[in-house]
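TICKET: design request
STATUS: open
ATTACHED STRUCTURE:
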């Protein structure tokens, strides 16, 4: 393929072409599927390709075009989309990249996925991830790691690494990931994308296999801020199947052109001086802050005094919730079953020991311990108290500012096998975890390449709860300086990673 691929196009460009009948939605679907077949072996973003679903969705869009009413097909009509494999979609397997669910077929469709398809999105398939979302590199997938399209020897981040790689390689225009402690924003930074974790409750979690139910939130990966806002518009809002979802009616595209003049943007000195923050990342974040100042924003230092405790609180709360959520995988109702045992307990133990990978077992064991009698009061209850303190810190900060600017990750994408110590891997999320604990919205916005690594760097924008339009407005202003996120060079202009 020598010309620009359909999945490299943004939403507006695709829809202009469809409206002008320069190409059909079926051509978009077929071209995107063909590109996946050629390019994905270099990346391994997809675990399953849904050709039949994609063509059916494309035909619905073409019927709307034939009737002279493309708008009736939805705001994402004709847009190639793909979904992290912890999101149910009827007609597909939902494996969570685990042997435990290798053969599980979805009995229903997650609300977030359904809303993207109902908005006209063309479902291309399911995407690789760290097993049950436990990881920061997509190396824990039972089906093999995903490569970073910017450098195939490096990780794409995680746990939504497949979702990030698919968009960075121009295999999808929009993908969905889930974020429990940074699993959208960190791979967004590693792959140079716009990656949004909205406020907890903006998007329904119904049909998304849970890691930490009080922490998880679904959001989009795109290459432009407008595309991310359009995807949020499609997904946001109350869902009667999810009692934590909220009746959000915000048009996330409404203020993208307003700029940052007059906005007060916060900078946390402790984040910028954190141990482990690589100089090239710090420089790019500081440059972005200066660009915002030049665009008319007022930069204000704010303090988050309890943020240093976020990592400790998260690795109590997260494993406890993971332990509870993974208890359902008992080898009896569904999931991997190790046959030939003489008693039920033996079957349970063998099935869970073999069905779950090392990181999943590590978190199950930690959560079991933390919730045990005599330990619960020592760790779990204080972690919830810390959560309250961190939430209050953010509330106080937003009395002074409209949005906070910070690093996403302390480093750019690392090589496969470079980070083997679990604790060091956990530190990949040192700047993102507190946002999930507090429930605020956060996103990664690409701001160029690191001077040393020549790899993408993202800046994190953090909004007050249910004011996600603030961070999108700031991101749109930065986009006027840095431009939309490019497809990784090896995959740009129709190339397939050669």
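STATUS: resolved
RESOLUTION: sequence designed for all positions
ATTACHED SEQUENCE:
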């Amino acid at each position: 393929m020598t010309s620009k691929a359909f999945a490299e196009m943004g939403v507006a460009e695709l829809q202009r072409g469809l409206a002008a009948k320069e190409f059909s939605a079926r051509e978009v679907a077929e071209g995107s599927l063909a590109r996946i077949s050629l390019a994905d072996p270099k990346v391994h973003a997809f675990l399953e390709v849904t050709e039949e679903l994609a063509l059916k969705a494309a035909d619905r869009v073409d019927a709307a075009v034939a009737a002279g009413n493309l708008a009736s097909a939805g705001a994402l009509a004709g847009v190639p989309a793909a979904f992290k494999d912890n999101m149910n979609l009827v007609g597909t397997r939902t494996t969570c990249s685990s042997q435990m669910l290798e053969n599980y077929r979805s009995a229903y469709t997650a609300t977030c996925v359904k809303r993207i398809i109902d908005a006209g999105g063309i479902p291309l398939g399911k995407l690789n991830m760290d097993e049950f979302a436990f990881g920061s590199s997509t190396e824990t997938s039972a089906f093999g790691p995903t490569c970073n399209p910017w450098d195939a020897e490096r990780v794409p981040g995680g746990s939504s690494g497949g979702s990030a790689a698919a968009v960075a390689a121009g295999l999808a225009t929009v993908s969905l990931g889930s974020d429990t402690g940074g699993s959208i924003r960190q791979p967004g930074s590693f792959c140079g994308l716009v990656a949004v974790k909205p406020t907890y409750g903006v998007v329904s979690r119904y049909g998304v296999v849970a890691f930490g139910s009080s922490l998880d939130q679904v959001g989009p990966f795109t290459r432009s801020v407008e595309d991310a806002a359009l995807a949020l518009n499609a997904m946001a809002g109350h869902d009667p199947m999810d009692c934590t979802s909220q009746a959000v009616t915000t048009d996330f595209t409404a203020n993208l052109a307003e700029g940052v003049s007059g906005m007060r943007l916060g900078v946390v000195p402790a984040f910028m001086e954190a141990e482990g923050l690589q100089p090239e990342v710090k420089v790019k974040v500081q440059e972005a802050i200066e660009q915002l100042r030049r665009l008319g924003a007022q930069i204000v230092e704010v303090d988050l005094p309890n943020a240093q405790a976020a990592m400790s609180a998260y690795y109590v709360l997260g494993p406890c919730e993971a332990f509870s959520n993974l208890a359902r995988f008992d080898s009896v109702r569904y999931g991997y079953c190790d046959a030939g045992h003489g008693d039920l307990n033996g079957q349970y133990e063998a099935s869970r020991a073999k069905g779950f990978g090392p990181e999943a077992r590590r978190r199950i064991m930690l959560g079991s311990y933390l919730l045990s009698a005599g330990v619960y009061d020592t760790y779990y209850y204080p972690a919830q108290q810390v959560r309250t303190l961190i939430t209050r810190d953010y509330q106080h900060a937003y009395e002074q500012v409209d949005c906070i600017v910070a690093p996403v990750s302390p480093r750019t994408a690392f090589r496969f096998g470079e980070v083997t110590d679990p604790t060091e891997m956990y530190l990949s999320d040192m700047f993102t975890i507190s946002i999930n604990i507090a429930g605020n919205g956060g996103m990664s916005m690409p701001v160029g390449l690191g001077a040393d690594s020549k790899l993408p760097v993202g800046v994190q924008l953090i909004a007050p709860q249910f004011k996600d339009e603030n961070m999108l407005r700031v991101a749109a202003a930065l986009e006027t300086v840095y431009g939309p996120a490019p497809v990784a060079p090896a995959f740009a202009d129709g190339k397939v990673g050669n």
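CLOSING REMARK: The radius of gyration is 21 Å. The longest helix spans residues 376-397.
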